[in-house]
């Protein structure tokens, strides 16, 4: 987890899409939103959940690791940048590699686009646009100490497990204090590949 | 707590984090008012930030508008204002896009009859035609044959002018405003009980409370930025009670969610009071010292045991007991309510039962204990304080009170005999138009074709007028039906004040000059007044001069603005009225001294008897139709239905219905009431009562919820019963396309706002209310 990062708290999310609109206002990709807002239990509940880039630390940025053009760079403060437009070839490898389903491909421009923690803002000491405007604090930007000062007793997790792979991220998630599971199960278990049952 | 990343030595390499490279803290950033010490790097491009507030709802979030070197608004930047602390909702973020929108009206439109097409004319010609029609109608049919309808999204200065213009220049009694559809029930109840019409506590008190009761308010969608206070209360261990027929985003995680049947609120609250009395949880000392009418209220509450109320409301009786215990036992409890309990033919009574409950438990006028009314429109609070309501004069004075009339006539410099008597409410004015009693009308900042109930009647009423002029900056559905449309400014092109839901007066600043051909509402009203021969009473070059008169006109009243000046507002970021002197800090919390604004200083409790809604259920119409807002749109949608991002988020209305009726998601369903029928895609969800259908109301016919709603009014506040009418739901063949917002002749409809209007499926954006069946 980075020193100063985004914390996602799905329990506070009201699905209003303020983050989606705010992301469009960000000058580095103006007009396009990089946020994914999912309604996790449609038809049964109004639960919703915003996903920003998790800025994976270990393994470091799977999207960058699989990039054949070395277009995705990671800055020293742990922020995984959007693909460099002068290098990106729009091959979608990063889209397939990301365990959180974050990067998007602009098919017309043949470029990858994703959340870069509003580097144009955070580099100048501002909070990312989404976490600045989020009306409920479902997206919070700061240190874990600042978060705990504001919300006594809050529990966060930054390690997620997909099958047998553990991923530690720079962005952290608030988890229910009374049901801390470590690491947080992510994604769905793989049950078959090419028609073959791979459950063991 | 997370594991230390450095402890995992056996893991793969990771980038060591150097804290000195991390961006500096948000806290420091917020403390600095949201602007870093080195100012904006964008300043190199000549960009400036103008501090102002959002133009939409009653939260009145602070924001900066980004203005480029040509002086045009082109973006938004969060602002660290007390109210919202940098937060914004999707409407606020996209609001700036209206300012230089291609649909803006930039020249007056005119036609001599509704059969003709609009043509663009000069201001001179439009104003002359308007004045000649006013004179013709008034000379033939009397002064009262001409009406004026204002709006609560106007700055307070302009609402003051609307009232003065009607009574001094038009000399008509028929003036009202669209806040009549918004908050007047709460206003009526507060006036009856407390003698003052505003919320009792500021938002920040929510953070101090132990129990928060929210009735009939979808905070997560209609006042999203207020949600931070609700969650903040929960962070500190407060219990949350939500009363709403739908499981809204705040109801989802509430401790108690009471999904009662629409139109049964007063029975529920009286029954909660019954349990509070039965269990001896009332604060008898407080009642004896501060309330009148308690014995009568107590006797009435005895008639509403939980078993009876549970049958009326369609909820388990235990919930009533649970709510009573949670609310009454909390050391500090608060109740907030909004349109959900106010939009009823018993709207005032519903609000009174909430006040009765707060008073009986002694939760009034303390930090973290009290009640609040959430205004829908940006200036819903200020819009009714300064005389644009049919029965009120500036400063909340009554137009029936001789003393009050005398005071205002003195300020306005007219004879008391010249001041017209009280007028009628907005819906009643439409009925009068139908009956040809009102033959001419000017509408300012409202769109009744979408926002008034029973569209058929509204259309008939407006069509029957001989002359109709509308002030607007977009061609609204109502303006498209007018004879004259005057292009006026958006909120970013003029300065003025608004009062938010906490009665905190905030100042909006001018960010850019209006486009050529556009004038301010103030200028247009003064110019009309001059041509009507009342120019000497309307010598207002700008908002500031109006505000100075408004301050004087409200001095010494309950709604005292005298101590509020533009300079003080800019300095403090907002002052809550009453504020009688220029060194007075304002009154964020009412009744701290235990005194109300009645002459005896007591809370006047009122007896309330529940009665069924006006639209009876029967075999043909067994279900309840309720209407409301969605997060991406605002009121009649005249502004928000033109902004691409918001249209994309929620392109069309839907009918929200429980799976027990057997409809599939996205299937066309016909919602039928006694007023008409409309087809919507079904949005099948378990998050609504099985006997209730919900349709959002921001769209015009043929996709208008208000073609179905009933124009029954509350006898006291005259608010229409939007929130409940009898309906049935049937299968339908196909859904109707959402009509594009009207545009002036010569303009093409903006392509972005056409996106997905034909999508046959309900939007997934209604906060997770879609279903997994979406193919």
From TrEMBL, chain A:
Q: Which residues form a coiled coil?
A: none
Keyword Translocase assigned to the entry: answer is no
Q: What residue stretches are annotated with the 4Fe-4S ferredoxin-type domain?
A: 4-34, 79-108
Q: Which InterPro entries match?
A: 4Fe4S_Fe-S-bd, 4Fe4S_Fe_S_CS, ET_IronSulfur_Cluster-Binding
Indicate whether Transport appears among the record's keywords.
no
According to the UniProt entry, its GO molecular function terms are: 4 iron, 4 sulfur cluster binding; metal ion binding
Keywords, in A-Z order:
4Fe-4S, Iron, Iron-sulfur, Metal-binding
Pfam families, from UniProt? Fer4_11, Fer4_2
User: What is this protein identified as?
Assistant: 4Fe-4S binding protein
Organism whose genome encodes this protein: Streptomyces anulatus (Streptomyces chrysomallus)
């Amino acid at each position: 987890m980075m020193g100063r990062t985004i914390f996602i708290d799905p329990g506070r999310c009201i699905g209003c899409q303020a983050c989606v609109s705010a992301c469009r206002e960000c000058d580095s990709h103006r007009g396009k939103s990089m946020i994914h807002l999912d309604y996790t239990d449609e038809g049964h509940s109004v639960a919703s959940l915003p996903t920003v880039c998790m800025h994976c630390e270990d393994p470091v940025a799977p999207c960058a690791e699989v990039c054949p053009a070395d277009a995705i760079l990671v800055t020293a403060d742990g922020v995984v940048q959007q693909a460099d437009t002068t290098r990106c070839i729009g091959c979608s490898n990063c889209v397939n590699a990301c365990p959180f389903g974050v990067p998007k491909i602009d098919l017309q421009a043949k470029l990858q686009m994703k959340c870069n923690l509003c580097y144009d803002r955070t580099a100048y000491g501002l909070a990312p646009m989404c976490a600045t405007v989020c009306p409920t604090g479902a997206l919070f930007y700061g240190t874990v100490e600042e978060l705990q000062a504001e919300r006594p007793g809050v529990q966060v997790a930054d390690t997620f497990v997909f099958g047998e792979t553990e991923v530690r991220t720079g962005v952290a998630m608030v988890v229910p204090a009374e049901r801390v599971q470590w690491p947080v199960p992510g994604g769905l278990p793989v049950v078959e590949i090419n028609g073959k049952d791979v459950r063991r | 707590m997370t594991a230390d990343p450095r402890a995992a030595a056996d893991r793969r390499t990771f980038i060591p984090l150097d804290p000195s490279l991390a961006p500096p803290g948000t806290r420091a950033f917020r403390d600095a008012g949201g602007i870093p010490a080195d100012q904006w790097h964008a300043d190199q491009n000549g960009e400036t930030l103008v501090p102002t507030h959002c133009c939409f709802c009653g939260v009145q979030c602070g924001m900066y508008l980004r203005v480029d070197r040509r002086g045009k608004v082109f973006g938004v930047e969060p602002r660290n204002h007390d109210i919202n602390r940098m937060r914004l909702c999707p409407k606020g973020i996209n609001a700036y896009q209206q300012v230089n929108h291609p649909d803006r009206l930039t020249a007056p439109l005119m036609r001599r009859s509704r059969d003709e097409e609009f043509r663009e004319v000069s201001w001179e010609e439009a104003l002359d035609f308007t004045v000649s029609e006013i004179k013709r109608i008034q000379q033939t049919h009397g002064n009262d044959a001409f009406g004026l309808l204002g709006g609560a999204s106007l700055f307070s200065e302009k609402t003051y002018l609307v009232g003065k213009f009607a009574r001094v220049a038009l000399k008509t009694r028929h003036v009202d405003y669209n806040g009549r559809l918004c908050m007047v029930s709460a206003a009526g109840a507060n006036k009856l009980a407390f003698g003052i019409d505003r919320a009792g506590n500021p938002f920040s008190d929510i953070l101090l409370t132990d129990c928060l009761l929210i009735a009939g308010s979808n905070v997560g969608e209609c006042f999203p930025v207020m949600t931070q206070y609700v969650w903040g209360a929960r962070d500190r261990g407060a219990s949350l009670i939500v009363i709403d027929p739908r499981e809204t985003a705040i109801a989802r995680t509430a401790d108690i969610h009471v999904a009662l049947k629409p139109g049964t609120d007063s029975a529920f609250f009286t029954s909660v009071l019954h349990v509070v009395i039965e269990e001896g949880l009332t604060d008898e000392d407080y009642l004896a010292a501060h309330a009148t009418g308690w014995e009568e209220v107590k006797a009435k509450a005895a008639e509403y045991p939980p078993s009876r109320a549970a049958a009326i409301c369609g909820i388990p009786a235990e919930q009533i007991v649970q709510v009573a215990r949670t609310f009454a036992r909390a050391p500090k409890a608060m109740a907030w309510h909004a349109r959900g309990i106010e939009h009823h033919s018993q709207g005032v009574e519903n609000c009174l039962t909430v006040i009765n409950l707060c008073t009986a438990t002694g939760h009034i006028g303390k930090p973290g204990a009290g009640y609040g009314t959430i205004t829908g429109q940006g200036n819903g609070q200020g819009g009714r304080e300064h005389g644009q309501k049919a029965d009120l004069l500036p400063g909340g004075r009554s137009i029936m009170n001789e003393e009050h009339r005398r005071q205002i006539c003195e300020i306005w410099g007219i004879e008391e005999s010249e001041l017209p008597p009280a007028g009628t409410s907005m819906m009643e004015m439409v009925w009068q138009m139908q009956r040809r009693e009102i033959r001419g009308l000017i509408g300012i900042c409202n769109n009744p074709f979408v926002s008034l109930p029973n569209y058929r009647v509204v259309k008939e009423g407006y069509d029957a007028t001989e002359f109709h002029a509308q002030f607007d900056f977009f061609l609204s559905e109502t303006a498209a039906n007018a004879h004259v449309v005057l292009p006026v400014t958006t909120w970013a092109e003029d300065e003025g004040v608004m009062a938010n839901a906490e009665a905190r007066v905030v100042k909006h600043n001018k960010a850019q000059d209006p486009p050529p051909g556009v004038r301010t509402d103030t200028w247009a009203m003064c110019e009309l007044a001059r041509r009507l021969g009342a120019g000497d009473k309307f010598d207002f070059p700008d908002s500031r001069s109006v505000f100075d008169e408004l301050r004087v006109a409200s001095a010494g009243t309950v709604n005292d603005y005298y101590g509020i000046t533009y300079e003080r507002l800019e300095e403090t970021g907002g002052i809550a009225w009453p504020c009688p002197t220029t060194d007075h800090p304002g009154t964020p919390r009412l009744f701290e001294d235990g005194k109300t604004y009645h002459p005896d200083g007591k809370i006047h409790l009122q007896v309330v008897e529940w009665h069924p809604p006006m639209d009876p259920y029967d075999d043909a119409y067994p279900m309840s139709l309720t209407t409301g807002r969605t997060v991406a749109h605002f009121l009649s949608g005249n502004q928000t239905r033109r902004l691409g991002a918001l249209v994309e988020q929620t392109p069309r209305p839907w009918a929200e219905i429980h799976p027990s009726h057997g409809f599939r998601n996205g299937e066309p369903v016909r919602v039928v009431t006694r007023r008409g029928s409309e087809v919507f895609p079904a949005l099948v969800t378990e998050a609504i009562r099985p006997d209730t259908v919900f349709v959002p109301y921001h769209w015009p016919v043929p996709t208008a919820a208000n073609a179905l709603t009933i124009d029954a009014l509350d006898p006291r506040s005259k608010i229409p019963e939007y929130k409940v009418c009898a309906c049935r739901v049937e299968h339908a063949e196909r859904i109707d396309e959402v009509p594009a917002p009207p545009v002036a002749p010569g303009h093409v409809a903006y392509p972005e706002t056409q996106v997905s209007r034909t999508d046959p499926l309900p939007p997934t954006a209604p906060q997770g209310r879609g279903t997994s069946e979406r193919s």
